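Weekly modeling sync, notes
Attendees: S.R. (lead), two postdocs, one rotation student

Agenda item 3: backlog of single-chain predictions. S.R. asked that every request posted to the team notebook include the full sequence so nobody has to chase files. The rotation student volunteered to paste the first one in as an example of the format we agreed on. Action items at the bottom.

Example entry:
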Amino acid sequence: AEHLRRGAAAEALAAAHLAGRGLAILARNVRCRGGEVDLIADDAGCVVFVEVRLRKSARFGGAAASITATKQRRVILAAQHWLAGAGRAHAQRPCRFDAVLLDGLDATRIEWIRGAFDAS
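Predicted structure, as returned to the notebook:
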């Protein structure tokens, strides 16, 4: 479907943006029962769980406002799942939750929000 293709393209742009700023992409599209996270990266020893959002419009606070508490829980669940399994080598490292917001599939209009939410 079109939205899946656009989602994959947005994730690829976000991954390239982060890699260009020195982050190493550790995993993509990590899913577990009740959870999912788009990208997992290493930022100088910090494990970063990244939610990628494609803005439809600037209304309603844009893409950042669309990361609801429910969505945050899904990301946190997938983060815990990954750290307990495939990413267990990273389990003792600090982590943070970031968001990468895109205005359409435009590599020049990307907003990277570090610490967009936390796991409290």
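Discussion: group reviewed the output briefly. The two ends are 35 Å apart (CA to CA).
Action items: rotation student to repeat for the remaining queue; S.R. to check formatting next week.
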